[in-house]
Amino acid sequence: MWISRGLRRMWGYVRDAPGTYLWLGVLFLTTVALHHMSPEFEQEFLRARSTNLRELSSDPVRVLIASAMWIEGGRWVPYAVLYSVFHAQAERWLGTVRWLAVCVVAHVGATLVSQGALLWAIRAGVAPRSAVDAMDVGVSYALAGVVGVLVYRIPGTAWRYGYLLAVLAVYGVPLALGPTFTDLGHGVGLLTGLACRPLVRGRPGKTRNPKETAAVGSDYRPWP
C-alpha cells in the first residue's frame, strides 16, 4: 500500500539522520517550554543562554552549547523543514560525525567572529555599550555552515555554481545592505561550511545506502 511505503521511506530518512532529528526533538521541547514562559521571563532566560559578549566572557563553553538548543521567537516548524532539507541531507551524506563537525565549527567560528566584530564596534563607539548583552541564541550559524558544505554534494558544474550563487545571494545581500553582527555570523558560517571541503573527501556526490553502494560495485566512483 502506498501509504505504508511512504511511511517506511519517511522513517528510513529519519533513521539515517539520527543527529539531525535528535537535535530537532530537543528544539521542539525547548520551544514548547518557551511558550509557557511570560515574555519578560523568556527574554531574561534566553539572554542567560545567549552567546553575547557578557556570557562568553564568563562561561563560553556553556553558552556555546546552550545557545544551540533554543530558538528565539518560538517558531519550530520552519526549522523542522530546514533541518529536513539541509541538515538531514548533509548527515546522510557525510555521516553523523563529519556533519556534526561542520555544525560545531560553523557555530563556534561564526559566533566568535561576529561577537569579536561587535566588541570592536563597541570600543570604536560605533555600537552602544549595551550591546554586550545583545541576544544571540539559535541554530542559524550551524545551518549556514551546512548549507555551505552541501555545495560539494551538487553534481554537475552548472548546478553546483547555481546553488553557490543562490546561497551567496541569500546570505550576502543582507550583509551588504545593512550588516548586523548576526548577518556577519551567517556569512562566516557559510564560508566556514565552504572551507570544510576536506571533510567531504571520499564521500559520494549522491547519498547512497549500503545496499545501493554494494550494488554498483566497481562502477562506484566518489564525487571529487
Span from first to last CA? 39 Å
Poorly predicted parts: 206-224
Strand content: under 5%
Global geometry: globular
Mean pLDDT: 88
Proportion of helical residues: 55-70%
Number of helices: 11
The count of β-strands is 0
Biggest sheet, in brief?
A: none
Structural class: mainly alpha
Task: Write the H/E string, N to C.
Answer: HHHHHHHHHHH
Measured on Cα atoms, how large is the radius of gyration? 19 Å
Question: Oligomer, anyone?
Answer: single chain
Provide an overview of this structure.
The protein is 68% helix and 0% strand. The chain is mainly α. It starts with a helix and ends in an 8-residue tail after the last helix.
Short synopsis of the structure:
By secondary structure, this protein is mostly helical. It has eleven helices and no strands.
Keyphrases for this structure?
224 residues, globular, disordered C terminus, mainly alpha
Question: Secondary-structure blueprint of this entry?
Answer:
Layout (H helix, E strand, L loop, with lengths): L1 H14 L2 H18 L3 H9 L5 H6 L1 H7 L10 H18 L1 H28 L16 H10 L7 H21 L3 H14 L15 H7 L8
